[in-house]
Amino acid sequence: MDGDAGVRVQAVTKRRGGSRRRRWLRWVLMALLACVGLSVLQVLVLRVVDPPFSAFMVQRQLSAWAKGDWNSGFAYDWRDLDAIAPSLPLAVVAAEDQNFPTHNGFDFKAIEKARASNARGHKVRGASTISQQVAKNLFLWSGRSWVRKGIEVWYTVLIEAFWPKHRILEMYVNIAEFGDGVYGAQAAARRFFRVDASHLTPAQSARLAAVLPSPRRYDARRPGPYVQRRSNGIQRQMRHLGPGGDLP
């Protein structure tokens, strides 16, 4: 092969390589746009449609089946926020996210406090808002990774952009796990207190909120010393926030 032919072959090879890269980048861009569009559609639909389950429920169920536990299931019974005792949303805000009515999905002061606490070697402390927890439980898988955290941030932004605070809080008290396989206010009220969610007392609501950090470890029906202390503290915060707690 003479020199000119070799140059022509190299030029053709280079053009083909560049064309493949452009096609690959185009496909990546289209995939990203499709994911963005799908996530926006999901959030818009769930603004008005009550979900039959959450991603976290599905993951837990699949995990149980993978272990051969075919009899496992979960208790979940949606209730609109006005059919739930006002003390429960107030209790979860008092326990989990007291700045919920005013922040835009992220509590940066709490994040900084958690960062400083963890940097000092204290017990690992989170600073997830109720909006972030809805994004995580409703759409994502459990675990810790930067990829999952990044997607959680994206869904949190969408939720805060497209849902009113009332809907975010309604979603949270319906999909939060209050006991092993017990999701939402109605299922928890029936399982632990044998009442309807509309009849929960402030003390019962505080006990449900008290187990949220580890609902498979703690029991709202038979609270140990930790849950009882935390429940008492939550009730004090509920009284501090007031009957409505400025909730939407």
- Count of helical segments? 10
Low-confidence stretches: none
Q: What structural class results from the helix and strand content? A: mainly alpha
**Which descriptor suits the 3D outline?**
globular
Number of domains: 2
Strand content: under 5%
Helix/strand order, N-terminal first: HHEHHHHHEEHHH
Give the name of the CATH superfamily of the largest domain: Biosynthetic peptidoglycan transglycosylase-like
Q: What composes the largest sheet?
A: 3 strands, mixed
Classify the helix fraction into a percent range: 55-70%
Q: Total number of β-strand segments? A: 3
End-to-end Cα distance, whole Å, is 78 Å
Mean pLDDT, to the nearest integer, reads 87
Please state the CA-atom Rg, rounded to the nearest Å.
Answer: 24 Å
How would you explain this protein's 3D organization?
The protein is an all-alpha fold. It has 10 helices and 3 strands, in the order ααβαααααββααα. A hairpin with a 2-residue loop joins strand 2 and strand 3. The longest helix is centred in the N-terminal third of the chain and has 46 residues, at 3-48.
Secondary-structure topology with pairs:
Blueprint: H1 3-48, H2 55-66, E1 75-76, H3 87-96, H4 108-119, H5 130-139, H6 146-162, H7 165-175, E2 177-179, E3 182-183, H8 185-193, H9 202-210, H10 225-241
Parallel strand pairs: 1-3
Antiparallel strand pairs: 2-3
